[in-house]
Description:
Blueprint: H1 5-33, H2 38-45, H3 49-56, H4 64-73, H5 78-81, E1 101-103, E2 109-113, E3 123-130, E4 135-138, E5 146-153, E6 155-160, E7 163-168, E8 172-176, E9 181-184, E10 191-198
Antiparallel strand pairs: 1-2, 2-3, 3-10, 4-9, 5-8, 5-10, 6-7, 6-9
Amino acid sequence: MGIEGRDKVKTLEAGAHALTGLLGRTVQKLRKANSLSLSELSEQSGVAKSIISQIERNETNPTLSTIWRLAQALDVPIERILQTGEDEPFLARSSRGDTPILLSDDGKCRLSIIGWIKTVEWLQWYDFQADPGGVLDSEPHQHGAVECLSVLEGELEVEVGGVIDVARAGDTLRYRADKPHTIRNCSDRPAHATMVCILKAAVME
Length: 205
C-alpha cells in the first residue's frame, strides 16, 4: 500500500480534510445559487439536514453515495461538486496531504483524486486502494463512459451487468461505466490500482 501506520492515518486525514473543505464551499455555493435552504436540499437529496450543514462547515468526510445524492439534487454532475479553483498553473504539484480522498460506503476503499481538475468533464484519474473485503459500488456515468482499472498490487474483481472478471498485478480491465458497476477486493490482501474513467469515450454498442 506504500503508506503505513501513523503516516497512513495522517495522509488520509489530511486528504479527507482538503476534500471536505472544497465540497463544503461548493455545496453551499450551489445550494444558494438554486435558492435552496438546508431543509429543502435535505428533502430533495435524502441527506440529513445536519449532515449537509456539517459538510458546508467542513466538519465531516462524506461518502461517495452522499456526494452523489447531493449532486443529483443540485442537478449537476458529481464532477462539479468536486471541482476546485478556476485558474491553476500549467505546472502544478500536489502533495499527498493535498490530494483529496473519497471513501467507499464501507470505508474500505479509497479513491485519491490524482487527475487534473480541468479534465474532469471527460477524463478522471484516481489512485485506488482497497482493504480486504472492500467494495466500491458505482452508479452509471454518462452514456459511452469507459473505465480502465490497472492493478498494481493484489487482485480486484469487477462486475458490470452481471459479468465478472478478475485482474491481478499487471492486468488491466476495461469496462462500460455507463451501467452500474462494482469493484471488489475478495482476497485477504490489500489491493492497489490506478483507475482512469473516460467520460467522453466513443459510444459503445
